Amino acid sequence: MRKIIIAIDGPAGSGKTTSAKLLAEKLNYIYIDTGAMYRAVTFAWIESKLEMSDEVLQNIINNSKIELKPSPQGQITLLNGVDVSKEIRSDIVNRTVSPISANEFVRRHLVELQRILGQGKCCVMDGRDIGTTVFPDAELKIYLTASIGARAKRRLIEYQEKGISNLSFNEIADQIIGRDRYDSNRTISPLRKAADAVEIDTSDMTLVQQVDTIYQLAIKAINE
Ligand code: CDP
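A: This is the predicted complex of the input protein with cytidine-5'-diphosphate.
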C-alpha cells in the first residue's frame, strides 16, 4: 500500500470539507483544511482593523502562527494559540476571505506551509488549488461540484445548525456566486479543475454516497 496525497478542490459549498474530513477518518489519513488557513488570516486582518494592503497583509502573515489540530469535536484552527474555529466561519469572514486569498504574499506563505504539512504524508487536503498548485503531482485529484441551489441549501442548513448567521437562502446563494466568481477569476492560482482530476457532481448525492464514491477511488489509487 502506498502513501498518497488526495487533493479535493471545488467551489464553495460543494461538500469538500465534510467529505474530506470523513474520508480522512475512514482511511486513517491526516486532514488539512486549507480554507481554514485563508479564513484564519482573514480573521487576523479583520481584528487588525487596518486597510487592506500588501504591507498590512505581509505584516499579518509574518506575525500569525496558524495551526490545525485534531480535537474530539473535529479539527480546530488556532491563530497564535487561540481557538478561532467558530469565528473563521462568520459572515464577515465569508465576505472578505476571497480578496485576502487572492493576495500574493498570503498565497505564497500558505502554499509553502501546506506543502510542509502534507509532503510525504498520508494526507487528504481540500481547497481551491490543491491539485493545480499545492500538489500538482497528487496521486488522486477530485474536483467536487454541485448546483448553486444545492450548495446554498447546504450552507443554509449549516448556518442554522451552528447558529452562524441569519442570512436567507437567496443571500447565501448570492454570496456563494460572488465568492466563486472572485476565486475563479483571480490571477494567482484561480479555482479550476486540474486536467487529471475526477469531477464529481454532488448535487443529488447524500453525504454518505459522496464519501463512498471518493473512498472507492482512494482505495484504488492507494493499491495501484
Ligand atoms: O467551505 P467553503 O467552500 O465555503 O470555503 P473554504 O474552503 O473554507 O475557503 C474559503 C475561501 O478561502 C475560498 O472562497 C477561497 O477564497 C479561499 N481559498 C483559497 O483561495 N485557496 C484554497 N486552497 C482554499 C481556500
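Residues 5-223 form a domain with the Rossmann fold fold (CATH 3.40.50.300). The chain has a mean pLDDT of 94.
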